[in-house]
Amino acid sequence: MDVALPPIIISSGLMPTGSLIKSLIHISNEVSSLEKLPFLQSRNISAMIRRIKFLSSLFEDIRETNSPLPPSSLLCLTELFSVIQRVKLLIQRCKGGSSLWGLIQTEFLSNQFHALVKEMSGALDILPLSLLNLSTDTREQVELLHKQAKRVDLLVDPQELQRREELLQIMASNNQKSSRNEGFVDLVKVKEVFSCIGLRSPLDYEEEISKLEAEAEKQAGTGGLIVVSNINNLISLVTYSKSVIFIAGHKEEIKENFKHLSASMNRNQDVSSSSQSRPSNIPNEFRCPISLELMKDPVIVSSGHTYDRNSIAHWINSGHHTCPMSGKRLIHMALMPNYALKSLLHQWCQDNNVPLIENSTSSSSKFERSSSKSKLSEKDIDRVSATKAAMDAVKMTAGFLVGKLAMGSTEIQRQAAYELRLLAKTGMDNRRIIAEAGAIPFLVTLLSSSDPRIQENAVTALLNLSIFDNNKILIMAAGSIDSIINVLESGKTMEARENAAATIFSLSIINDCKVTIGTRPRAFSALVGLLREGTASGKKDAASALFNLSLNNANKASVVAARAVPLLIELLMDDKAGITDDALALLALLSGCSEGLEEIKQSEILMPIVTDLMRFGSTKGKDNSITLLLEMCKDGGEEIARRLLINPRSIPSLQSLSTDGSLKARRKADALLRLLNRCCSQSHNPVG
């Protein structure tokens, strides 16, 4: 239900007038006669049906007059047919889809209704009412409809928003309590929310479960792992609520293909467990479909079904790659914790005095003293392999955290962004998995957060993720660059600004990213601002980002225009800044464009500074110093060359570099010595 309505293709060209009017009357009557409107979007649906009834009068009048229609009216009627068809589809989706998922998507659905009203208004803009032979009542109705449609505002039912917030609070509270092994939320509140959206009988609950399962299957291919996980948590919530509220349930029919596995697992259980008294009234929803025992650690597989972790891990380790319940092939082997069901399990166990023993490799001292073969088997049940288990753990953690970013409160989002920041700090696999879990778009959205910690954690997480090259493309594709520049310009903490600069540096390693960022002059101004105001590490990040961007020749002029050159020269004299080599490298690079070279030549203090760095600087500093001096002296730089000759330290330094410097430094030192020789040959003895 969270995808846009597809465009309706009527035909190439326009329908014949008679067929078009007949089709319009038919579809208008279909929409107008809809009964048993859904509980959700009822105000939008009622208003839309009322508009279409007005239009139906228009269509009836046109049919009765049976006179030729002007071309513009045919175009208008064709557009109206398309709009009404999409209205019909949208109402059917609201009626036939999951009520809970529709509640989550209430703003999205309201926006779709609003967009259709605006399309209706646009179609009526080209309707020549004055040229149509209509009754006075019909004309006035259409004019009124047109005026109302033009000024209609987006209608999001406040009661639906309130119910959605209550549902999200239930889900968030459920997850919080599950992490602390506390009981489940108040089922009275759950029943109240469900009742308000039409879930009032056991049959309603069963139908909602079926609709949620269908939605999960539809979203499995496009919605991402976290969306499917959220839907499955809703399924667990409805399933348990039905069982508790209506004290009803029936035994699940278990398929033949895993009965043998169940028996095998039961035989491998600790002997002491068979002597324990087991409750006979375990709800079917709490039994693992494989072992038929009370689940201890429920997890969701890619098909959407829930199993006990040990049972499904044993199933996968046995060589199966399908879901035991559905028989469908598992598109991945990640096991997502079913936090909702786990909370319900804990609550039920507490209410029924049933001890809940967590899955463990050492459930009893007797089992710990068993043979090494038994211990190995227990480990095999717990994971497919060591590497596989690590990857699955990262997948589950990433999926869980992305869910918190999507649906959590401010405090939860802050913590989730921080945890993702840490998780993305190490390991390329971690960065890949986090991106696959859908974290990047949510992190980009959080860059605009008013909470300083959320913004800082989000931009730092993106920085860490960008180290993986494929993620650079995904981050850019998420439309992140303007948000990153906003943080760089006016981030709420200096660390956020500096990490935004580091993110731009990382992204700009990709040539296409250099070009994209280069179209934003604000990026260069913001980087120069950080170069002036940042800490030592921030200045270094800014200088590195500017250097990377300047590797694209088209960006050099933008860096110069942002007044980078005077600041870089100042930083050459600032030992505390600690970025002498970075500033010198950037100046050398900017000297390769006419705008940069002209501004560099205007500096009265640069030449003696660079001469000293050529003598006392690092190897990298010496290379960039000679590059910069050579560019300054070439192409009309006679005055700078004469000043260089006057400096008593310049010629010895050049001679030293021509013999002892790097290959690059030797070559450029020789070139500069030859240039200086030509400069002074008429009035001085040659140098070198």
Automatic annotation (TrEMBL):
Enzyme Commission identifier(s): 2.3.2.27
U-box domain span: 281-355
Pathway: Protein modification; protein ubiquitination
InterPro entries in UniProt: ARM-like, ARM-type_fold, ARM_PUB, Armadillo, PUB12-19-like_N, RING-Ubox_PUB, Ubox_domain, Znf_RING/FYVE/PHD
Gene3D superfamilies in the cross-refs: Leucine-rich Repeat Variant (1.25.10.10), Zinc/RING finger domain, C3HC4 (zinc finger) (3.30.40.10)
Record's catalysed reaction(s): S-ubiquitinyl-[E2 ubiquitin-conjugating enzyme]-L-cysteine + [acceptor protein]-L-lysine = [E2 ubiquitin-conjugating enzyme]-L-cysteine + N(6)-ubiquitinyl-[acceptor protein]-L-lysine
Gene Ontology molecular functions: ubiquitin protein ligase activity
Class of the enzyme per the UniProt entry, highest EC level: transferase
Protein name (Swiss-Prot/TrEMBL): RING-type E3 ubiquitin transferase
Source organism: Salix dunnii
